[in-house]
Amino acid sequence: MALVAGSFGAVPAVAAGAGSAAPPSGERTATHALPPRIEAKVRQSVRQFQKRTQAPGVLVGIWSPKGRFLSATGVADLATGAPLRTDMQFKIASQTKASRAT
Q1: Rounded to two decimals, what is the model's pTM?
Q2: DSSP 8-state class, residue 90
Q3: How far is CA 31 from the centre of its chain?
């Protein structure tokens, strides 16, 4: 399973990942969405994280044998208010070391 998440704006990223809808190379992943119950829990966790950290934007991608999930919420640019999109790219450096599960 691969999980990548990032927060944008004034709050430092706790973990970050590319906004690509493609799974990480070499990973065995499902081609369908996460089951509705699991997706609802993930969305709730993202909302709680964004509220608790006051992150202007959060990008989350999950690729697992049980399904896929990709979501962008909030803004990517505080100055313009441009919305965060799932197709955006950003530098992640070593951020994924702590969040990547295989």
Answers
A1: 0.64
A2: -
A3: 18
